[in-house]
UniProtKB/TrEMBL annotation:
The chain crosses the membrane at residues 190-211, 231-256. InterPro entries: GIY-YIG_endonuc_sf. It comes from Cupriavidus campinensis. This is Uncharacterized protein. Keywords: Membrane, Transmembrane, Transmembrane helix.
Length: 264
């Protein structure tokens, strides 16, 4: 694993496990360069009943053991500010009072999208275990584009291997199976070889027509559901490392094809 740079920042969320909307749809979102310190500051204030967020304090007062601290992702400060800007797109959204964008704020949605545009040379992957809970990606409609833009790269070898084994052409199988394998092969190529463009295409095929925020959420939900999960699992697939994405997208689209569009 690549070591994290000294200037690495983290996008985190505080939420109650009693919330049913799912990660990213509720709770308080923030950015820090020191996870342990920031978590301690939040929970120390909560224990004293003096947290600056009335919504977090109210949730703590109702069920202190239900509050969870999650790490969504990590990267440069600008990248994390851009993601927070898309996750918290308006005042008083979720448990946040202000529009996202870190301490500097003022970032427009267009600037946030541009900040997250895949570069010619993707930055090294970086991750960190969550503090107090398992890591998982956030997926509100407002942040769907940011989720889709999170992964770029190539898993060509993984795609080639899968397409020659798991999704290999076989004239002896049924039409349904042959079509599903074809969809699986396309999925591995989308996930591994085309990077972000492939992710967009896979999600667009699985979800509603188009690539609006709602369609993206619908798409990753469908892909996640195809492999036994939901929107969060689908988001995990979309932002996974390219080789993992090749397997996950290929498998998800394969089962999605069999389940939803199989011949009767």
């Amino acid at each position: 694993m690549t070591a994290l740079a000294d200037d690495t920042h983290y996008l985190y969320q505080i939420r109650s496990r009693q919330c049913s909307s799912g990660l990213g749809f509720d709770g308080y979102h923030g950015i820090t360069d020191n996870v342990k310190r920031r978590k301690s500051e939040h929970f120390d204030d909560l224990k004293r009943g003096k947290h600056k967020s009335e919504k977090i304090q109210a949730a703590h007062d109702v069920g202190p053991s239900d509050l969870e601290f999650w790490i969504h992702t990590s990267g440069t400060r600008e990248e994390m500010e851009a993601r927070e800007r898309l996750l918290v797109s308006q005042p008083n959204m979720h448990w946040n009072k202000q529009v996202g964008g870190g301490p500097r704020r003022g970032m427009t949605a267009e600037a946030a999208m541009e900040c997250l545009r895949p570069k010619d040379k993707p930055a090294p992957a970086a991750s960190m275990p969550p503090i107090g809970a398992a890591a998982a990606p956030a997926l509100p409609v407002s942040g769907a584009a940011a989720v889709l833009l999170a992964t770029a790269g190539s898993g060509v070898l993984a795609s080639y291997t899968l397409n020659k084994t798991v999704f290999a052409e076989d004239p002896g199988v049924s039409d349904d199976e042959r079509d599903a394998r074809s969809a699986g092969r396309a999925g591995t190529r989308l996930g591994a070889g085309v990077g972000v463009a492939g992710m967009l295409a896979a999600v667009g095929l699985a979800g509603e027509v188009g690539l609006s925020g709602a369609a993206v959420v619908s798409g990753v939900s469908a892909i996640g559901g195809a492999v036994g999960g939901g929107a969060i699992v689908g988001a995990s697939i979309v932002i996974a490392a390219p080789a993992v994405a090749a397997l996950a997208i290929g498998t998800g689209v394969y089962w999605l094809r069999k389940r939803r569009w199989g011949r009767k």
